[in-house]
Amino acid sequence: FGLLGLLWFCGIVLGTKVSGLAVNTLVLPECMSNDACGELLACIDLRCQDPCPGPCQGNATCKIHNHLPYCACDPGFSGNPFIGCQRAPASQRGLLLTGSISSGRKVYKVERFFKVNYFAALAYCTTQGGRLASIESNDENKLIKEAINNSGIRNEQFWTSGTNLPQGQWIWMSSGEPLLPDYSDWWPGEPNNPGVERCLEFWEKDLNGYMWNDKQCMEQIYPICEYFEYDL
Q: List the disulfide bonds (predicted).
């Protein structure tokens, strides 16, 4: 080979270190952004790679939406998927969901010990036997606000299942129903970023009470899950 052929080298190609045996090898990037990769891959170190290894801990699964990873507890487990999920209490696992409001009374649970992005919130509530909160009346809106107030958390943000993905029309992802045309609870001036902030949260500012706000879907905030209680 000769001495030069046996030496490892380190070069810089478009800001990324590359190593190899042949000093005259041209290394081209596979990607410059996530858009160059498949939806389930991300552009990491200029290569399209699986973004999932690492972030999720025990009894949690990593999933990918539009190049971005998120964690969700496995069925039958609850807690923070980033530090490890624990087996859910039997009473919680027994709550059933049919998707029919007439089948039982809606019960809302504010998950106040961890924050996740919108897609992880959808997955988390499903693994708990419920779904991310939807609002189909003024009474339901009041019940959610009551649940938030009972948590004692102020000036924070909480996910609902509201979104205008992918078609631009606001719907409740959990039920597939559009937002009611004759009822809303948006903060004045909201929603105000239709192409950027595409998910619906409850938000309080300056201790003035919680109202609806559009939010970037990958922001990590508290989820609100909904369940149906049944009269036996």
A: 52-62
Are both 21 and 38 inside the same structural domain?
no
Angle of CA points 121, 155, 136, to nearest 5°: 50
Query: Which residues make beta-bridge pairs with 199?
Result: 163, 215
Are 130 and 225 contacting, i.e. CB atoms less than 8 angstroms apart? yes
Q: Kindly provide the residue ranges of all beta strands, DSSP E only, lying in 76-221, ordered along the sequence.
A: 77-80, 84-87, 105-110, 131-132, 157-163, 171-172, 177-178, 199-204, 210-215
Are the C-beta atoms of 103 and 96 separated by less than 8 Å? no
Q: Are residues 136 and 46 part of one domain?
A: no
Domain range enclosing 37: 31-94
The predicted structure's pLDDT at residue 98 = 35
Q: How many domains does the chain have?
A: 3
Given 72, 94, 116, which residue is the final one in a domain? Answer: 94
Q: In one letter, which amino acid is 18?
A: V
Specify whether 36 is located in the same domain as 19.
no
pLDDT at 223 over 70: yes
